[in-house]
Design goal:
CATH architecture of the largest domain: Alpha-Beta Complex
Number of strands: 15
Number of domains: 2
Low-confidence stretches: none
CATH class of the largest domain: Alpha Beta
Helix content: 25-40%
Largest sheet: 7 strands, mixed
Number of helices: 9
Mean pLDDT: 94
Strand content: 25-35%
CATH topology of the largest domain: Quinone Oxidoreductase, Chain A, domain 1
Order of helices and strands: EEEHEEEEHEHEHEHEHEHEHEHE
Length: 333
Protein backbone atom coordinates (compact mmCIF):
# COMPACT_ATOMS: atom_id res chain seq x y z
CA UNK A 1 0.00 0.00 0.00
CA UNK A 2 1.43 3.35 -1.06
CA UNK A 3 1.18 6.08 1.59
CA UNK A 4 1.54 9.71 0.55
CA UNK A 5 2.36 11.95 3.52
CA UNK A 6 1.53 15.62 3.68
CA UNK A 7 4.43 17.52 5.20
CA UNK A 8 5.18 21.12 6.13
CA UNK A 9 8.76 22.03 5.27
CA UNK A 10 10.78 24.96 6.56
CA UNK A 11 10.91 27.58 3.80
CA UNK A 12 12.33 30.62 5.63
CA UNK A 13 14.29 31.64 8.71
CA UNK A 14 12.17 34.30 10.52
CA UNK A 15 15.04 36.28 12.00
CA UNK A 16 14.25 39.82 13.12
CA UNK A 17 10.55 39.49 12.34
CA UNK A 18 7.42 37.51 13.09
CA UNK A 19 6.56 34.21 11.46
CA UNK A 20 5.05 34.42 7.96
CA UNK A 21 2.99 31.86 6.04
CA UNK A 22 5.77 31.87 3.44
CA UNK A 23 8.19 30.44 6.03
CA UNK A 24 6.53 27.06 5.38
CA UNK A 25 5.88 24.96 2.30
CA UNK A 26 3.26 22.21 2.10
CA UNK A 27 4.35 19.18 0.07
CA UNK A 28 3.37 15.57 -0.49
CA UNK A 29 5.96 12.81 -0.11
CA UNK A 30 5.59 9.12 -0.91
CA UNK A 31 6.73 7.04 2.06
CA UNK A 32 8.63 3.77 1.81
CA UNK A 33 7.34 0.63 3.49
CA UNK A 34 8.48 0.07 7.09
CA UNK A 35 11.70 -1.94 7.24
CA UNK A 36 12.53 -4.48 9.94
CA UNK A 37 12.00 -2.92 13.36
CA UNK A 38 10.07 0.04 11.89
CA UNK A 39 6.47 1.21 12.02
CA UNK A 40 4.07 3.22 9.91
CA UNK A 41 2.52 5.97 12.04
CA UNK A 42 -0.40 8.32 11.51
CA UNK A 43 -0.22 11.66 13.31
CA UNK A 44 -3.34 12.47 15.33
CA UNK A 45 -2.29 15.67 17.13
CA UNK A 46 0.58 18.15 16.91
CA UNK A 47 1.86 20.23 19.83
CA UNK A 48 3.21 23.79 19.60
CA UNK A 49 5.74 25.68 21.71
CA UNK A 50 7.28 29.18 21.50
CA UNK A 51 10.71 27.53 21.27
CA UNK A 52 9.87 26.43 17.72
CA UNK A 53 10.53 29.93 16.43
CA UNK A 54 14.03 29.79 17.91
CA UNK A 55 14.55 26.47 16.16
CA UNK A 56 13.48 28.04 12.86
CA UNK A 57 15.93 30.91 13.43
CA UNK A 58 18.77 28.53 14.39
CA UNK A 59 19.62 30.48 17.52
CA UNK A 60 19.01 27.56 19.90
CA UNK A 61 22.27 25.65 20.10
CA UNK A 62 20.85 22.85 22.26
CA UNK A 63 19.14 21.35 19.17
CA UNK A 64 20.45 20.67 15.67
CA UNK A 65 20.08 23.57 13.22
CA UNK A 66 17.21 23.48 10.73
CA UNK A 67 17.89 23.86 7.01
CA UNK A 68 15.51 25.11 4.36
CA UNK A 69 13.60 22.07 3.12
CA UNK A 70 13.64 20.19 6.44
CA UNK A 71 10.35 18.88 7.79
CA UNK A 72 9.31 21.40 10.44
CA UNK A 73 10.41 20.14 13.84
CA UNK A 74 7.73 19.58 16.47
CA UNK A 75 6.04 17.16 18.83
CA UNK A 76 3.06 14.97 18.13
CA UNK A 77 0.87 12.04 19.05
CA UNK A 78 0.68 9.20 16.55
CA UNK A 79 -1.24 5.96 16.10
CA UNK A 80 0.69 2.89 14.96
CA UNK A 81 -0.93 1.71 11.69
CA UNK A 82 1.59 -1.04 10.90
CA UNK A 83 4.47 -2.56 12.85
CA UNK A 84 7.21 -4.59 11.19
CA UNK A 85 8.59 -5.96 14.45
CA UNK A 86 8.83 -2.43 15.85
CA UNK A 87 8.91 -1.25 19.46
CA UNK A 88 5.15 -0.68 19.50
CA UNK A 89 2.13 -2.67 18.34
CA UNK A 90 -0.56 -1.80 15.83
CA UNK A 91 -3.12 0.46 17.46
CA UNK A 92 -0.76 1.87 20.10
CA UNK A 93 -0.75 5.63 20.64
CA UNK A 94 2.76 7.09 21.02
CA UNK A 95 4.18 10.58 21.47
CA UNK A 96 7.45 12.42 20.98
CA UNK A 97 9.29 14.29 18.24
CA UNK A 98 7.40 13.61 15.02
CA UNK A 99 7.72 16.75 12.91
CA UNK A 100 4.92 18.33 10.93
CA UNK A 101 3.88 15.32 8.88
CA UNK A 102 0.57 13.47 8.84
CA UNK A 103 2.26 10.07 8.33
CA UNK A 104 5.79 8.85 9.00
CA UNK A 105 7.92 5.72 9.08
CA UNK A 106 9.94 5.43 12.29
CA UNK A 107 11.87 2.99 14.46
CA UNK A 108 10.30 4.70 17.47
CA UNK A 109 13.63 5.59 19.11
CA UNK A 110 12.37 9.06 20.12
CA UNK A 111 8.82 7.99 20.90
CA UNK A 112 7.05 6.80 24.07
CA UNK A 113 3.88 4.75 24.42
CA UNK A 114 1.00 6.70 25.96
CA UNK A 115 0.07 5.13 29.28
CA UNK A 116 -2.37 7.42 31.04
CA UNK A 117 -6.07 7.39 31.80
CA UNK A 118 -6.20 11.14 31.16
CA UNK A 119 -6.98 12.40 27.67
CA UNK A 120 -4.18 11.30 25.29
CA UNK A 121 -3.46 14.97 24.56
CA UNK A 122 -2.32 15.41 28.17
CA UNK A 123 1.07 13.96 27.14
CA UNK A 124 1.63 17.08 25.04
CA UNK A 125 0.39 19.48 27.72
CA UNK A 126 0.36 18.90 31.46
CA UNK A 127 2.30 15.61 31.20
CA UNK A 128 4.46 16.72 28.30
CA UNK A 129 7.26 19.21 27.83
CA UNK A 130 4.95 21.95 29.11
CA UNK A 131 4.36 20.26 32.46
CA UNK A 132 7.87 18.97 33.04
CA UNK A 133 9.32 22.37 32.11
CA UNK A 134 7.13 24.01 34.77
CA UNK A 135 8.07 21.34 37.32
CA UNK A 136 11.81 21.31 36.68
CA UNK A 137 12.17 25.07 36.39
CA UNK A 138 10.27 25.70 39.61
CA UNK A 139 11.58 22.90 41.81
CA UNK A 140 15.04 22.21 40.40
CA UNK A 141 16.04 25.85 39.87
CA UNK A 142 13.60 28.01 41.85
CA UNK A 143 13.62 25.76 44.92
CA UNK A 144 10.54 27.29 46.60
CA UNK A 145 9.75 26.67 50.25
CA UNK A 146 6.39 27.03 51.97
CA UNK A 147 5.53 30.66 52.57
CA UNK A 148 7.52 32.00 49.60
CA UNK A 149 5.99 34.44 47.15
CA UNK A 150 6.35 33.15 43.58
CA UNK A 151 5.91 35.63 40.72
CA UNK A 152 5.32 34.24 37.21
CA UNK A 153 5.41 36.17 33.94
CA UNK A 154 3.49 34.79 30.97
CA UNK A 155 1.34 33.23 33.68
CA UNK A 156 -1.69 32.51 31.49
CA UNK A 157 0.40 30.48 29.06
CA UNK A 158 0.52 26.70 29.10
CA UNK A 159 3.69 26.55 31.20
CA UNK A 160 3.03 29.59 33.38
CA UNK A 161 -0.41 28.41 34.45
CA UNK A 162 1.07 25.14 35.70
CA UNK A 163 3.94 26.89 37.53
CA UNK A 164 1.51 28.87 39.68
CA UNK A 165 -0.48 25.80 40.61
CA UNK A 166 2.67 23.84 41.52
CA UNK A 167 3.74 26.78 43.68
CA UNK A 168 0.42 26.61 45.51
CA UNK A 169 0.84 22.85 46.03
CA UNK A 170 4.23 23.66 47.60
CA UNK A 171 2.56 26.02 50.07
CA UNK A 172 3.61 29.26 48.36
CA UNK A 173 1.75 32.42 47.44
CA UNK A 174 1.44 32.69 43.63
CA UNK A 175 1.16 35.96 41.71
CA UNK A 176 0.90 35.93 37.91
CA UNK A 177 1.50 38.52 35.21
CA UNK A 178 -0.67 38.27 32.08
CA UNK A 179 -2.14 40.46 29.38
CA UNK A 180 -5.76 41.50 29.69
CA UNK A 181 -8.54 41.36 32.26
CA UNK A 182 -9.92 38.05 30.97
CA UNK A 183 -6.61 36.23 31.38
CA UNK A 184 -6.09 37.72 34.82
CA UNK A 185 -9.57 36.67 35.88
CA UNK A 186 -8.89 33.11 34.67
CA UNK A 187 -5.62 32.99 36.60
CA UNK A 188 -7.33 33.76 39.90
CA UNK A 189 -10.66 31.98 39.45
CA UNK A 190 -9.54 28.81 37.66
CA UNK A 191 -5.76 28.44 37.86
CA UNK A 192 -5.76 29.25 41.57
CA UNK A 193 -3.34 32.18 41.60
CA UNK A 194 -3.62 34.43 44.65
CA UNK A 195 -3.38 37.57 42.52
CA UNK A 196 -2.91 38.59 38.91
CA UNK A 197 -1.22 41.61 37.35
CA UNK A 198 -2.42 42.93 34.00
CA UNK A 199 0.64 44.29 32.20
CA UNK A 200 -1.64 45.91 29.62
CA UNK A 201 -2.99 48.16 32.39
CA UNK A 202 0.46 49.76 32.71
CA UNK A 203 2.83 50.52 35.58
CA UNK A 204 3.74 46.87 36.12
CA UNK A 205 6.34 47.76 38.74
CA UNK A 206 3.74 49.49 40.92
CA UNK A 207 1.37 46.53 40.57
CA UNK A 208 4.11 44.07 41.58
CA UNK A 209 4.91 46.14 44.65
CA UNK A 210 1.22 46.27 45.55
CA UNK A 211 0.73 42.49 45.29
CA UNK A 212 4.17 41.50 46.63
CA UNK A 213 4.76 44.02 49.44
CA UNK A 214 7.34 41.84 51.18
CA UNK A 215 9.26 41.15 47.99
CA UNK A 216 9.43 38.20 45.61
CA UNK A 217 11.22 35.02 46.67
CA UNK A 218 11.02 33.15 43.35
CA UNK A 219 10.64 34.65 39.89
CA UNK A 220 9.69 32.33 37.02
CA UNK A 221 10.23 34.37 33.87
CA UNK A 222 8.76 33.44 30.50
CA UNK A 223 8.96 36.92 28.97
CA UNK A 224 12.23 38.79 29.53
CA UNK A 225 12.75 42.41 28.56
CA UNK A 226 10.97 45.16 30.47
CA UNK A 227 8.79 42.74 32.43
CA UNK A 228 11.83 40.96 33.86
CA UNK A 229 13.35 44.32 34.72
CA UNK A 230 10.24 45.28 36.70
CA UNK A 231 10.20 41.94 38.52
CA UNK A 232 13.86 42.23 39.54
CA UNK A 233 13.08 45.57 41.15
CA UNK A 234 11.01 43.80 43.82
CA UNK A 235 13.06 40.71 44.71
CA UNK A 236 13.47 39.70 48.34
CA UNK A 237 16.75 38.84 50.02
CA UNK A 238 17.94 35.44 48.83
CA UNK A 239 15.55 35.37 45.85
CA UNK A 240 15.93 32.83 43.06
CA UNK A 241 15.24 34.01 39.50
CA UNK A 242 14.40 31.29 36.98
CA UNK A 243 14.81 32.18 33.30
CA UNK A 244 12.61 29.90 31.21
CA UNK A 245 11.69 31.83 28.05
CA UNK A 246 11.73 35.18 26.33
CA UNK A 247 8.40 35.82 24.64
CA UNK A 248 9.35 39.49 24.31
CA UNK A 249 12.02 38.61 21.75
CA UNK A 250 10.05 36.40 19.40
CA UNK A 251 8.85 39.18 17.10
CA UNK A 252 12.19 40.99 16.89
CA UNK A 253 14.36 37.90 16.57
CA UNK A 254 17.04 39.50 18.74
CA UNK A 255 17.73 38.44 22.29
CA UNK A 256 16.27 40.70 25.01
CA UNK A 257 18.52 43.40 26.38
CA UNK A 258 20.00 42.67 29.79
CA UNK A 259 17.81 43.99 32.63
CA UNK A 260 18.83 47.34 34.09
CA UNK A 261 17.97 46.08 37.56
CA UNK A 262 20.34 43.11 37.46
CA UNK A 263 22.49 44.67 40.20
CA UNK A 264 19.60 44.08 42.58
CA UNK A 265 20.88 40.49 42.56
CA UNK A 266 23.89 41.82 44.45
CA UNK A 267 21.95 44.00 46.86
CA UNK A 268 19.53 41.15 47.68
CA UNK A 269 22.13 38.36 47.59
CA UNK A 270 19.95 36.68 44.98
CA UNK A 271 20.69 34.30 42.12
CA UNK A 272 19.49 34.08 38.52
CA UNK A 273 19.79 30.96 36.37
CA UNK A 274 18.52 29.62 33.09
CA UNK A 275 17.82 25.98 32.32
CA UNK A 276 17.15 23.51 29.51
CA UNK A 277 14.56 20.97 30.61
CA UNK A 278 16.23 18.17 28.63
CA UNK A 279 18.93 18.10 31.32
CA UNK A 280 16.46 16.17 33.50
CA UNK A 281 15.14 13.83 30.78
CA UNK A 282 15.90 10.65 32.79
CA UNK A 283 13.49 11.93 35.46
CA UNK A 284 10.61 12.68 33.08
CA UNK A 285 8.69 9.41 33.65
CA UNK A 286 8.66 9.93 37.43
CA UNK A 287 7.76 13.62 37.06
CA UNK A 288 4.88 12.75 34.73
CA UNK A 289 3.49 10.30 37.28
CA UNK A 290 3.65 12.97 39.96
CA UNK A 291 1.94 15.55 37.74
CA UNK A 292 -0.76 13.04 36.83
CA UNK A 293 -1.33 12.44 40.52
CA UNK A 294 -1.82 16.17 41.09
CA UNK A 295 -4.41 16.25 38.27
CA UNK A 296 -6.26 13.24 39.67
CA UNK A 297 -6.31 14.75 43.16
CA UNK A 298 -7.86 17.93 41.80
CA UNK A 299 -4.83 20.05 42.71
CA UNK A 300 -3.71 20.74 39.14
CA UNK A 301 -5.96 21.94 36.33
CA UNK A 302 -4.84 22.38 32.75
CA UNK A 303 -6.33 23.85 29.62
CA UNK A 304 -5.83 22.93 25.98
CA UNK A 305 -6.52 25.05 22.91
CA UNK A 306 -7.20 22.57 20.09
CA UNK A 307 -7.32 23.79 16.50
CA UNK A 308 -8.19 21.50 13.60
CA UNK A 309 -6.80 20.57 10.18
CA UNK A 310 -3.22 19.78 9.14
CA UNK A 311 -3.31 22.64 6.63
CA UNK A 312 -3.63 25.05 9.57
CA UNK A 313 -0.32 24.15 11.24
CA UNK A 314 1.46 27.48 10.45
CA UNK A 315 -1.55 29.53 11.58
CA UNK A 316 -1.74 27.48 14.78
CA UNK A 317 1.93 28.15 15.59
CA UNK A 318 1.42 31.89 15.09
CA UNK A 319 -1.36 31.88 17.71
CA UNK A 320 1.36 31.53 20.37
CA UNK A 321 2.74 34.97 19.49
CA UNK A 322 -0.51 36.89 19.05
CA UNK A 323 -2.04 36.00 22.41
CA UNK A 324 -4.98 34.21 20.77
CA UNK A 325 -4.37 30.82 22.39
CA UNK A 326 -5.66 29.74 25.79
CA UNK A 327 -3.57 27.02 27.41
CA UNK A 328 -1.49 24.45 25.59
CA UNK A 329 -1.68 24.95 21.84
CA UNK A 330 -2.56 21.78 19.93
CA UNK A 331 -3.74 20.86 16.45
CA UNK A 332 -5.92 17.84 15.72
CA UNK A 333 -5.12 16.34 12.34
Amino acid sequence: MTIVARQWLLNGHPRGRGILDSDFKLVETELRDPGPGEMLLKTRWLGFDPAQKGWMENIADYVAPMAIGDVMRGSGICEVLESNGGRFSKGDLVFGTTGWTDHLVSDGAELTRIETDLSPTAVLSVLGTTGVTAYCGLFKVGKPVAGDTVLVSGAAGATGSIVGQLAKIAGCRAVGIAGGADKCKWLVEEAGYDAAIDYKAGDVRRQIKEHCPNGVDVIFDNVGGAILNDMLAQIATGARVVICGGISRYETGSLPAGPQNYFNLVFRRASMAGFIVLDWAPEFPAIRKRLEGFVRDGHLAYREDIQHGFENAPTTLKRLFTGDNRGKQLLQI
